[in-house]
Model the fold of this input.
Amino acid sequence: MASPEKKKPRRCRFLSVYSRCFGGRRSASSGDLSASSSAATKIASLNTKPRRAASDESSLLVSAALSNNSMTPIEATASHETSGRAPYNPRPSHAIVAVAKKKLEPNRLPESSNGISGELDRAINDHQRSKASGTLVRASSSNVMVFGHLGNIRSANPAGTHASNRNTLPDDLPKTARERETKYGTTSASMGNILRAKSSTNPEEMKEMGNEEYKKGRFAEALALYDRAIALNPERASYRSNKGAALVGLGRLLEAVNECREAVRIDPFYVRAHHRLAALYLRLGEGKKAESHFKMSGTEPKHQDITHARDVQSHVSMCVEARRVRDWHTVIREAECAVSAGADSAPKVLASQAEALLKLHRQQDAESALRAIPVFDIDASTKFFGAVTTGYFHFIRAQVDIVMGRFEEAIASAQWAAQLDPNNKDAASVVMKARAVASARLTGNELFKVGKFGEACAAYGEGLQHDPFNAVLLCNRAACRSKLGQWEKAVEDCAAALNVRPSYGKARLRRADCNAKMERWEAAIKDYEMLMRETPGEDEVRRGLSEAKVQLKKL
Done:
């Protein structure tokens, strides 16, 4: 008869965990079980403190850690939902887990380890040596080391790396907006003003904050605050006037004029708005309007302001008259006087100056004069200056664009000029000229790329029939002539290009190379040295200069 089956002794929870994890490494014989049962009985007699319930979170963490069965947050949530427990929470409360400050060394155990506690320590130590890993640490209800990838705590270290314990949140954890601003240095007084403005309903407070930003040179922030104040109280003249000042700081002069006009409409006796409006009219070349508002800017307007306004008006009138009789030198002189008197942003004055410079073949100076004009919206410019003045400005811009090689922009500007001023018959001819020159350059470039230098030279020549002083076409034809060995003619084309554009570096370099090929070392050195001053980092220029100096010494 078979012997009756022996009743298996009950084991404590820690022993059960231990057997499940390391049963493969340690024998499950009856002798071991009896020894374990004896140890469990001994520990149970010594430990009179009641155990926590099986649902205690620390027990779950111990089981997860010892079994090395790292569930993802989604799996953990599903497990809790199935068992009827509370759903998984990736952010535990402050009272749940205390992170251990030191790991147990994998090759050394405390001498005091005995009983079930020591057995667990030795088992963990064996597992660490076999797996060559030190991330598994003994845990208890009062001392828990949790893996970051279990989802219970957030760790800055990726899974599989050693994560050090921290008393504070890692830097890479999600931050609030205020924390991000502080960390990266974006929190500023201006941002504080903007945030206060969003929640404030006091327009005076908005204005004061805008004034603070304006004094610091932050005109865009000041403009936003003034806009907020106007939205809260649109009938306050000072808000409009201050907004005009912010717009001036941003270079938006015509919008600033509109705001100052609105300010004096609201309060016709607002002295500061009148003075600000007068200064704007002065810059835009409107001398009579500037004088009128200067007189309304106080009981005794400054004599200097009135004088400047009258000087601007006088020089503008003389500039227009000189242009009518085509006295280009007088146009340039009167335009410069008007700018010196205060009309530094007047399109009509600066466009007249650019036209006179073009007529005198000073293309580079014409480009500089046109750059001084602020960029105005076409509709706003037409409303303020009129269609004829706006059309004239675009007509001159088209001509400057042609000589500078900006042919597409030239065509667009000329078309605007013809549309704004139908009586300007020259605008149509400028469009045709721009298209002819652009076509010639395109054809010449294509022929040059395939090595047809003679045909490319002829194509550039056709373009020069429409615009004989076009520096771009002259320089390109010089390149063709250099390839054909016509160095003397190439030097002539480069010299013609430099006469109208003295800072045209490509033409100067090409002339220096041609002079070097003709062994005119002194002329070559002169051009190379000038290029070195303008572009000191060019290796080609440095090599050419060095070679020319060597050859000159040999002579």
About this structure: The CA atoms of residues 445 and 463 lie 12 Å apart.
